[in-house]
Design a protein that fits this description.
- It is built from 15 helices and 20 strands.
- It has 540 residues and is α/β, with parallel strands linked by helices.
- The protein has a 7-stranded mixed beta sheet, with no helix packed on it. Strands 4-14-15-16-18-17 form a 6-stranded mixed beta sheet, covered by helices on one side. The chain has a 5-stranded mixed β-barrel with strand order 5-6-7-9-8.
- A hairpin with a 2-residue loop joins β6 and β7.
- The longest helix is centred in the first third of the chain and has 19 residues.
């Protein structure tokens, strides 16, 4: 009994160490530690390797990393020289990657861009900017402390922050301006409440029964199956979202007549640039992967430089002055089991160096924004801080590159762009029967309606329980740019342009298992002066 108690205490200490170092302790890794004789010593060795920049905090989420630490395949030499069993730096890596990809997919000249459903004559007539000067403002770049306690109080503060922010947005609505607290509701009176959804289920009679709560208590809310509009609305209700309800209480049940989302106001002000400048939107480049489409990416760079073969692309490419990357710029290391079998570059620093070498080929007057995704070398839990210079020094040193957090909000020539990798889309689509992952921009529209980027807590997309919920969409953008699912999508919702920019990676074995068909090589361009949108297809 004493031995079991001691083992339990050790595992608690390990869990505390992971929390203090802002690392995610997965069930698989916990089980691995439970079978080890000296797990605490192993954990201390792991965090020492992170401290010495031999591996990243993300590597510690992978059981393969701990197996290598146990077998002493990862260590630090004297003089702090980094050594990883699979690291194999190669000279002229960029050329090697391009040549490998060309052998499989063909040379870059094969990938002539096609302008989808657009008149090319209007492009030729548009003016080209001379002596361009970028106008950039970072409105929101989430900086978070490195350590969290992960106590009950932290979670309470986090959800209180979410509730307060979304309540403030909802109270702008006339119907909810005089909303009451749940504890003040009286039977038989028509009233309005603002509450967080904590449970949702279907009764045996086919009604939808919600449990909602605010700071004063809980309330059962019944959506009658005979009310067609409410039943349709119920399909979009997600757990942990904050909504408004207008209705009447009877015998302890709240019967709503109307459900109100935080949503985007109809009169939302849209901003435009004062000059005809274009922005390009890309995501999920996955440099380092064997499936990285290097020739297609090179062909895009050729387009930016005005070196295309068609007159319209020679005119359009040089008008692009801003390029946004919405995460997963590299394939990463140890993101999933046996990933090393899918890599051409197994050194994370070298992956970022190669990505930087591509960016270095961009025209000098192009400004680049880069956020992390779930494959980048930051913590997995959101919000994710910007990619650290210790892994991406070559990027951080570039004057025209901004490394910012996931999510972040930036202003370019007066136009606001919300950048978010959109990892929670795969969680959300499982609870939104009217949507499919093949139309990612529609799911991003639901994020705007809910005014939250990751509403469902506790599923596959981990969230850091900070004192403030940084994933609430407080300030509305003009453009909402995402990625993650490798499927190009576009939508427009109440004036906001929604772009999911696809990928520069061909279909992986993992995607085949999930029956996901990516749409690589599709890039969206937006004229910030009039929000005219053009979609280019480089890879068919």
């Amino acid at each position: 009994m004493a031995l079991k108690t001691s083992r339990k205490m050790v595992l608690k200490k390990i869990a505390k160490l992971f929390l203090e170092n802002n690392a995610l302790l997965t069930p698989e890794v916990t089980f691995f530690f439970s079978k080890e004789k000296n797990p605490l010593e192993l954990v201390n060795n792991g965090f020492e390797l992170v401290k010495n920049n031999v591996i990243s905090i993300r590597d510690l989420e992978n059981i393969d990393t701990w197996e290598k630490i146990k077998q002493k395949q990862i260590h630090t030499k004297k003089g702090n020289e980094k050594t990883f069993a699979n690291f194999s730096p190669t000279k002229n890596t960029t050329n090697r990657i391009v040549q490998y990809s060309e052998r499989i997919y063909g040379k870059q000249d094969l990938f002539e861009p096609e302008l989808l459903n657009q008149d090319t004559k209007s492009i030729i007539n548009e003016p080209i900017l001379r002596n361009f000067e970028p106008k950039v403002e970072i409105i929101k770049d989430v900086f978070t402390p490195k350590k969290f306690r992960g106590t009950v109080d932290d979670f309470v503060e986090y959800f209180q922050s979410r509730y307060k922010k979304l309540s403030k947005i909802l109270k702008i609505r006339q119907e909810l301006a005089a909303s009451q607290k749940i504890a003040s509701i009286r039977d038989g009176e028509k009233t309005a409440i603002i509450a967080m959804i904590t449970d949702k289920r279907t009764t045996k009679n086919g009604h939808i029964l919600l449990t909602v709560e605010d700071e004063t208590g809980q309330q059962a809310v019944l959506l009658n199956r005979n009310n067609k509009r409410l039943m349709e609305d119920s399909q979009a209700i997600l757990l942990d979202s904050v909504l408004g309800f207008v209705g009447t209480t009877k015998n302890g049940l709240f019967f709503p007549d109307e459900i109100i989302w935080p949503d985007v106001p109809y009169k939302h002000q849209i901003n435009y640039a004062d000059v005809p400048v274009y922005a390009a939107f890309l995501s999920d480049i996955h440099v380092g992967s064997k499936e990285f489409l290097a020739p297609v990416f090179k062909r895009f760079i050729k387009f930016l430089r005005g070196e295309g073969t068609k007159e319209w692309e020679k005119r359009l490419g040089p008008k692009v002055k801003y390029v946004f990357f919405a995460g997963d710029e590299v394939d990463g290391i140890g993101v999933y089991p046996k990933q090393e079998n899918d890599l051409l570059i197994d050194d994370i620093n070298e992956q970022y160096d190669v990505f930087a070498s591509f960016i270095n080929e961009f025209p000098d007057d192009v400004t680049v924004f880069v956020i992390p995704g779930n494959h980048d070398m930051v913590r997995r839990a959101e919000p994710q801080p910007k990619i650290p210079s210790s892994f991406a020094n070559s990027l951080a040193d570039m004057d025209n590159v901004y490394l910012v957090s996931n999510p972040s909000l930036v202003r370019t020539h007066g136009v606001k762009t919300l950048l978010y990798h959109c990892t929670p889309m795969l969680d959300m689509v499982n609870h939104l029967p009217m949507h499919t992952i093949e139309r990612p921009a529609d799911i991003m529209r639901e994020m705007l309606r809910i005014r939250h980027l990751s509403p469902i807590y506790g599923e596959r997309s981990p969230i850091v329980p900070e004192k403030e919920d940084h994933l609430v969409i407080e300030e509305l953008p003009d453009i909402f740019h995402g990625g993650h699912v490798h499927i190009h999508g576009f939508n427009k919702y109440r004036g906001i342009l929604i772009v999911n920019s696809g990928t520069m990676q061909s279909q992986t074995e993992y995607q085949k298992q999930l029956n996901i068909t990516p749409t690589p090589g599709k890039i969206t361009l937006i004229n910030l002066n009039n929000h005219l949108t053009r979609h280019l297809e480089f890879y068919k």
